[in-house]
Write a structure and sequence with these properties.
Elements (H helix, E strand, L loop, with lengths): L1 H19 L3 E10 L2 E3 L3 E6 L2 E6 L2 E6 L5 E7 L2 E7 L2 E2 L1 H21 L3 E2 L3 E5 L1 E2 L22 E7 L11 E10 L2 E7 L3 E8 L7 E7 L2 E15 L4 E9 L5 E11 L34
Parallel strand pairs: 1-10
Antiparallel strand pairs: 1-2, 1-5, 3-4, 3-6, 6-7, 7-11, 8-9, 12-13, 12-19, 13-14, 14-15, 15-16, 16-17, 17-18, 18-19
Helix pairs in contact: 1-2
């Protein structure tokens, strides 16, 4: 038994490492002034985990982060700067779907599940006339609304029905200003959650139902907050049955990325890896004997 346990842990650790990916990324940097490529400009690249230096045109290896990368270049009396957005890559979905919250936390904390562009061009202007540009979320500013949001909900086994195991469901997510909507629909059921962002906090509430059992809906209640420069949301909540009793305890992870979750066993975006459960409808009474 002990040998099996040790082998299982080794497999999990190996799988997680292969999914997580590198924590560093090489980036090439060049500078231009008008239509001219500038050689020898001194550039500083910095994010919340470090600072790096390079001369243009050149390449430097930076440590990944969920935070944006600030790039500043200067030569003589010309300078320029740019804010480079960090975006989630496909590795982060591998860790969410296979490693659950542990895998997700590894990617978030190490930055391995996030990438910067491979090449950056900084436009130089006289006396630093070029200000910071690029999309991103400033401290205390709104949550990033551009691009695409994806969400994965993980729920434990049903506490009210022993034959209902844990499951994961993928949602299409939309952020419009301070309004957030999550939606998924498959052949048998539909679920919708919504909420309003307050600073970095987001409470979510919603419901789900089976098309053939619409009289037996279930409800959700989540509380959570955005981190990683407004690009990651983690919420904790419950799935409640029609009587308001806690059927499952769930965690919801929402990530700002253009990379969709991978298709798994024929399950596509907006569908669940397993179907949600609801109380079974009572069987119809037998017809009276004639």
């Amino acid at each position: 038994m002990l040998r099996i346990l040790v082998l299982s842990i080794a497999v999990l650790l190996t799988g997680c490492a292969s999914i997580t990916g590198s924590q560093e990324q090489p980036i090439s940097v060049q500078a231009t002034q008008g239509s001219t490529i500038v050689s020898g400009a001194s550039c500083t690249l910095s994010n919340d985990v470090g600072k790096w230096y390079v001369k243009t045109p050149g390449s430097v290896s930076v440590k990944k982060s969920t935070g944006d990368l600030m790039v500043e270049c200067a030569k003589n009396d010309a300078s320029g700067n740019e804010k480079i957005v960090s975006k989630a890559n496909v590795n982060v979905w591998g860790n969410v779907l296979i490693g659950g919250l542990i895998g997700y936390a590894i990617d978030r904390n190490s930055g391995a599940g996030f990438d910067y562009p491979e090449a950056i061009t900084i436009k130089l202007g006289i006396n630093g006339s070029n200000g910071f540009s690029g999309a991103g979320r400033a401290a205390g500013g709104p949550v990033v609304a551009d691009g695409r949001w994806r969400a994965v909900m993980s729920c434990d086994a049903n506490r009210l029905a022993a034959d209902k195991p844990a499951y994961q469901a993928r949602f299409a997510a939309e952020v419009n200003g301070d309004k957030v909507t999550l939606h998924r629909k498959n052949a048998v059921a539909e679920e919708v959650l919504s909420g309003t962002i307050n600073d970095d906090n987001l409470p979510l509430a919603g419901m789900g139902y089976r098309f053939k059992q619409s009289n037996f809906p279930w409800t959700f209640k989540f509380t959570g907050a955005f981190t990683g420069n407004g690009k990651i949301y983690t919420g904790n909540g419950e799935m409640l049955n029609t009587r308001g009793r806690t059927a499952r305890v769930c965690t919801l992870v929402m990530i700002h990325t253009d990379v969709p979750p991978p298709v798994k066993d024929g399950v596509g975006e907006g569908q669940a890896d397993s179907k949600p459960d609801t109380p079974k409808a009572a069987a119809p009474a037998p017809a009276a004997a004639r």
